[in-house]
Every structure is written in C-alpha cells, then in structure tokens.
Amino acid sequence: MVELAEKINIELPQDKLLRQLCTILSRYLHQSQIDEVIHAYEFGANAHAGQIRKTGEAYICHPLSVAIYLAEMRMDAQGIMAAVLHDVLEDTDVTKSELQQLFGEDVAELVDGLTKLSKIDNKPHDEAQAENVRKMILAMADDLRVILVKLADRLHNMQTLDVMKSKKKQRIAKETLDIYVPIANRLGMNDMRRQLQSLGFYNLYPMRFRILQKALKKIRGNRKEVVDTVESAIKNRLIENQLNCEVTGREKNLYSIYQKMLKKRISFSDVADIYAFRICCDTVDTCYRVLGAVHNLYSPVPGRFKDYIALPKANGYQSLHTLLIGPYGLPIEIQIRTHQMHQVSESGIASHWLYKSDDEKKSTLQDLAHEWLRDLLEIQKSAGNPLEFIDNLKIDLYPQEVFVFTPQGNIIKLPRNASVVDFAYAVHTDIGNSCISARIDKQLVPLQTKLETGTTIDVITAEWARPNPLWLNYVVTAKARSGIRNFLKHFKQQEAIDLGKRLLEKELNSMDMSLDKIPEAHLKNLLEALEIPSKDILLEEIGLGNRMPFLIAKRISQNNMQEAVKLEDAEHNQKSPLLIKGTEGMVVTLAKCCHPIPGDPILGYFNPGRGIVVHHHECRNSKDSRIKKTNWLDVEWGQDIAGEYPVEIHLEILNRQGALATVISTISSLKSNIENIQVISQDDSISVDQVILSVKDRVHLANIIRKLKKLSIVLKITRTKA
Ligand code: MN
Predict the structure, then answer these.
(1) Considering the entire predicted model, what is its pTM?
(2) Choice among 3, 15, 35, 91 that is catalytic
(3) Is-catalytic flag, 91?
C-alpha cells in the first residue's frame, strides 16, 4: 500500500487521515490548537516509525483514526492529542515525563491512564480481565476522556479485526460485547454501542451474522411498500395537525434482532415484522401532541406506552415509546423525541462537547456519569477483590436486568421491569400464588411495583390470597406467567363456585333461608328440574352469570319446581350488597366503558359466561340494564382496596406551547400513571384530549382534577363515564 502510493505519487494513507482530522478540527478548534495536534502527530509518527499494523498501514494510521472519531464528537484539543499519542508509552521508548514537557500535564496523564488500561488487555484470565475493568473505572473516574479515547480505540481495533487469527478475534469480540458495549450503553453513547455490538457480533458469530444479514436484505424489498405507506400516513396526519416533525423509518441492527430471537425464543420473521419509526420535533410539548396524533391515527396497544421524557433512563435517555396496530394489523413501534434528545441519545456523555453551545441539560449527563462513577468507587473500596467488584459492576452495567435481595440476603436476578409478583414466583411458586403486597426496604408497596436493583424485597402473603389475571398485564418472567396461568386454569372453576355460593346465599338470606338448611332431597329435585348434574355445577353456573341467583333462590323458596319466576317478580329487596374487593379475578371484572374506581357508586351486571361486570352507576350501559330490570345486582366497594384503577378524563386545554407537557407532569407529580393520551380534536386555540390514567380511588382522582383545574391552561376537565 505504502509502496503503491509512492509509486503513483499520491498521498500516503496517514497524510490523508491527518488532512481529514485537521478539516474536522478546523470546525471547532483554533488554529493554534490544531498546530499543537499536528505537533503531537509528528512526534507520534516519529516514535512509531517503522511499525506496521497487521493491516499493512503505518502504525500511526491507527491513532489518527481514533482521533478522527473523537473529533467528530468535538472532543477538546487535549483529548485529541492524547488519542494521537495513546500508544506511544506502550509501544515505543517515549516516557511520561517527555510527554509532560512537550504536551503538558493533562495529555501526559491521559496517555498514562490509557497505557495502564491496554497493558492488562492482553491477559486472558478472568481475574486479569476483572482487574482491567476495575482500572478502567478508576481511570474513568479521574477523567471521563480516558474512557472516550479507550472506546474509540476499541472501535477502530474492532473495525480492523479481520486481519487477526480467529481465536484472538473471538476473544476480543467477546470482551467487547461483555465490557465495552455495556460501558458505552451506561454512558448513553448509543451510536458507539451499536457499532461495537455489530462488529462484536460479526467477529464472534460470523455465520449467524451472515445468515441474518441475508435474511434482512431479502425482506427489505418486501417491506418497502408498507414502510412507505405508514410513513406517509404519519407524515400527513402530522401536517394536518400542524405539527412540524421529521419522520424516519428505523431498521433494527442485526445484533438486537439476534438478541431478541434468543431471549424471546422467536423466529426471525417475528422480530423483523415489527416496523419502527422515529419522529423528531422541536419541543417536549410537541412530542406529546405527536403522541396524541399518532394514537388517533392507529390504535395503540395498551400497556406499551412508555414515558421516558418525564422519567428518563439512568443514562439520561429521553423519548416517548409507543406501539401501534398499523395497516393489516402490523405492529408499529414509534419513538418520539426532540432533536436535542435525539442528539444526546446518540452520543451520550460526549454530547457535552458536541453541542457545547447550549446549556446545562448536557452537562447534567456528565454529572450523571460522574455520580455513577462515584458510586462505583465506593463499591470498589468495599469490594474484597476485583472479581467481587466486577460482580457489583455488572449489576450496574446491565440495565436490562435487575438484581434484588431476599430478606435472607440471597440475590435474585430478574429482567428489567420485573414486578413484585415476578420476584415472588422466582422465590417459590407458592409464594407467588399467595402474595398480596410487599415491603421494599421497609416501605409497603403494591404488587405491580417495578423492582430496582439493590433493594431488599419482603413479600407479604396471605392464606386467602390467590393470583389475579390482571397480574398477567405486568409480569415479565415466564415463571410468573405460567404460574399464574396454571393456577387460574384450576381456579376459575373454584372461584366461580365460591362466587355462586356467595350470591345464592345472599339471596336466600334475604328470604330468611340459608343454603345449609335446604333439605338434600329438595335440592336434588331442583337440580333434576334444571337438568344440572350437581350442586357445584349449579353454583358455578351462577358464579359465571349463566343463571340468576335470585331466580334459583325463588325456586328454592317456593318449594315447588313447576314454574320459573317471571322477571317482573325479580324486584325485591336485596338487603346487603355484594362487596367488591378489586382482587376477585376472573369472575368479577371492571367495565371498560365507564372505568369505575373505588369510591364510585357501582352496579354489578351479570354477563353470561363471564361472571359479574362492575359498572359505574352513571354509565349508560348500566342504565340500560337497569331499565330491563334484569341481570343486575347490588354491589359495593369493600374496605381497604389495594391496586390502581384506570379512569378516563376529558380535557380542554389551550392549544399552546408547553400546555400538554404541563398537564402530564402535573399528573405524574401526583403519582398517577398515564396509560394513554389521545387528541380528540384541535384547532388554533383549543385542544381536546382524552387521557386514561390510573388512580387509587376517587380521592386520588379528585386531587388530580383539583390540581389540574388550578392550571391556567386548563379550560375544562371532566371525567368520562361512557
Ligand atoms: Mn490503540
């Protein structure tokens, strides 16, 4: 390569790289600083003279490439110089004091820090690797630039890994995936993470990489039409709503597709069938408006909306995520964020240099990183040896997993977003089946609480407790899911029988009778007349809503079995209403039309085959059923109801910058989750939105409404009950 270049008299690769570097630097550094970088280059090129990389290029091409990557991130002059010189202490006769004299304290320290790291790079053992990571963290805590140069160094080495022997290739690839990828991720550097992941995957599993690549290429053609249709539908809808945004289709990287296939044990086509789009706009408020608009275009999948704007991830990542059902029922993933959030999500802590011009937001990312490093240093002080430190570090580096403790101090690993229920089933199926709540670090919390790393969970169980099908909405582990399903399968019947018994007993009591006191023969006659094989099946039928309890009670009381009671006769006094605990499970459900919450006047409706559906008194559907005077039942909320219940509110707000964002942050500040937002209509001055949020009860809702009413932008707010 060098010879060829000389022969036809074109510039050498290193000259070309230097020119490229200077061009990039000239965008943000002074000429005097660029001269210093050139000085460092000349010094480095001289020191490395005669060394050739396995790729055939002069050695200095490698540090130059590293510097170019960092220059794209606008790293400061010292960082760039350190990048250019990063291997001189390691591979040449140059000393630290020499660097100090020529390029100053900062550069010398940076290069020294990097050298310490690379020395251990070559030791194969676990402990050496652990030591390596520990040193990396320590160096990072001293100066974040060390890790940035190190990551860029690793990236370039990965890009030129092809020339290595396959065994070494695999070791380096594995180390990259195990250690460097999580660090890049923890620092919010998504662009770096993706590149390292993809190169790591390619070098570790070349066959799998190629097969997936081929498959992806093949479907890309088929997908184009759908992508175009959806993209233009979204764009048009946003234009109609006067929302100025940038919509782009997103292709998942091969490694994340591979990970999904492994983790969820699904086929390539199932992963690839998801269509993903990103919408970038200027303000936070617009993000929420865009969310409302797309939810209005395609229907959202319940429970898949995530608000990382109000609650950013630990590495500072911010975005709204939602999943929609698109044309032909295809799943469509949408990410909505501001341009600024997007930039930050691509370069993470490096965005501090990249977008220096504006503001605190980005330096808080560096603060976050420093905070994290400080915590790690604390851990490192108390850790007995490097391996123990690594165990602790892994807890931090793998945010897709949480590590929590039992009261006995045993550590349990669960996937991210795992709830108390997942934990309970992880401990033991019986504990899962009977859990009612938990204490996390001594605080009492509900079952759907998401677990955080490092906490101690004490599950509270009760003999009478049993799994609730609603749990299936939030559990994430297979063990919990199958545990709940199994239990419910066997239990629905028993549950229906119990409810049937409660209902029948209540009716009989109001006629001064009781089920126990009915003569056996009498009951037998009744069952024969109704053509029902057993008492349990009769009770189950009642519990499931297939037979009306007061009709059965009436037949029992009449002591003759010839005539069913006419419906008009059904009006009678029901002395004590059935108490709803909110945890009944499969045979008592809350109506989705009117969203009753604890404290509301409610009414039970027998739904054949499904049991009792609880409606709000004012729900139109329940009014209809009351007019028919049939199939309904007095119910009342019991005492001490746990859980969160969805409720729908209708909002009219001023259509102005920041309005929707203010509403949302007000709701979140009162500890309520927003489950869905939809823009119903919008003009220049007013926006009408429908919001579904979850509350504990009426008092909780009233607090939220009161707080919202105080906002000057809120014109009208009503709760919708169908
Ligand atoms: Mn290097």
Answers:
(1) 0.57
(2) 91
(3) yes
